[in-house]
Amino acid sequence: MYAVYERRLRTTLIGRPLPRHVGVILDGNRRWAKLDGADAAHGHRAGGRKVEELLRWCSEVGVEHVTLWLLSTDNLSRSEDELGELFQIIVAVVEDLALPSKPWRVSIFGALELLPPGIGDALRAAAGSTADRDGLQVNVAVGYGGRREIADAVRSLLLEHAAAGTPIEELAEIIDVDHIASHLYSKGQPDPDLVIRTSGEQRLSGFLLWQSAHSEFYFCDVLWPDFRRVDFLRALRDYSARRRRFGG
Fold this sequence. Notes:
single chain
């Protein structure tokens, strides 16, 4: 029955508009582990194993960009024990995505300077090894916060113009949204058409604040490690049925 329902969902998507860029808030790992009577690391490992499945589903339907939120700046206040294991899990996930046998091009979004020594370097190195690939663009948000990203973009913009000798008064006259957008972590990429959040929470929590101004949102009750292809297809079906008004 599951396979029949999945085929039916795929059929409903034929000829319908599908997202070019999907953002995913991978929420619910800790709650999943608690229900299983295990520690948080057990949930994070299960969530990490789910990432590659999602990317393959995205590739199958023609999604070109995926942004995955693996760790927020707020999460950095968790216990040292949990974070220590979580950092290692995230590095392992990114390094696995970067293996030569994988087709994806990986980028890292976030304030990597906030991470422990060596973690940011390992993530950059793994992502850098995929730079010449032409497959699905996979953005991994680690140590990420939407407000922090906007602040970093403005700071980068100011430093760029300061180096060029632009007077602050002149900059104030010419600065616009395109100037700021060109300094975001996602510069050069399209904004997300669809943002999915698992676990039943119905808020963005700071995910892609700037870029999601015109995104469609889909919230599902499934905890991230239990997220299935049918849940993904349901999100696409919901998206394809909406009339996008882009601020209207």
